[in-house]
Design goal:
Beta-carbonic Anhydrase, Chain A, zinc ion binding, zinc, Carbonic_anhydrase, lyase, EC 4.2.1.1
């Protein structure tokens, strides 16, 4: 067992020993979903005021709405969420490369077969943070599989200060 796996096992045992919230309902109590980045510097529960059972939290590289769409639809259509909050962040890795760069790294590290496997993959990097938030909101609002009644908003989390600011 790796040190990381051992840590998970031990920390989970400690958590489970005092866990008392096993009776929470399946749908999120506050009926919203947050899409945010997988960046390890972000603690969505603490930074965005989410208590256990309040909301769905979807994390991926860049807090990308297209990557999150399947989960957003399930949250919205099957589990009754009525609000979508999209949060990207400052100093995001997605601001630092282009598709060709990512494809090149994969090929360099894993060989030509892996390079070919990602040759058409859009890693969805973005050069402008606020515009990326606006583009993702436009994508969600225009998507016919997302309820038109859902409230959709976009935010930027500042990793340097812990503050959020609304973009749209």
């Amino acid at each position: 067992m790796s040190a990381i796996q051992q840590n998970l096992k031990e920390r989970n045992a400690k958590y489970a020993s005092s866990f008392t919230q096993g009776d929470l309902a399946l749908p999120p109590a506050k009926k919203y979903v947050v899409v945010t980045c997988m960046d390890a510097r972000i603690d969505p529960a603490a930074a965005y005021g989410i208590d256990l059972g309040d909301a769905h939290v979807i994390r991926n590289a860049g807090g990308n709405a297209k990557d999150a769409l399947r989960s957003i639809i399930i949250s919205n259509q099957l589990l009754g969420t009525t609000e979508i909050i999209l949060v990207k962040h400052t100093d995001c890795g997605m601001l630092t490369f282009q598709n060709a760069d990512a494809r090149g790294v994969v090929e360099k590290n894993l060989g030509s077969e892996a390079g070919q496997a990602v040759s058409n993959l859009d890693f969805q990097p973005f050069p402008d943070l606020e515009q990326a938030v606006k583009d993702d909101l436009e994508f969600l609002k225009a998507n016919p599989a997302v309820s038109k009644q859902a409230t959709v908003s976009g935010w930027v989390y500042e990793v340097e200060t812990g503050k959020t600011r609304q973009v749209a």
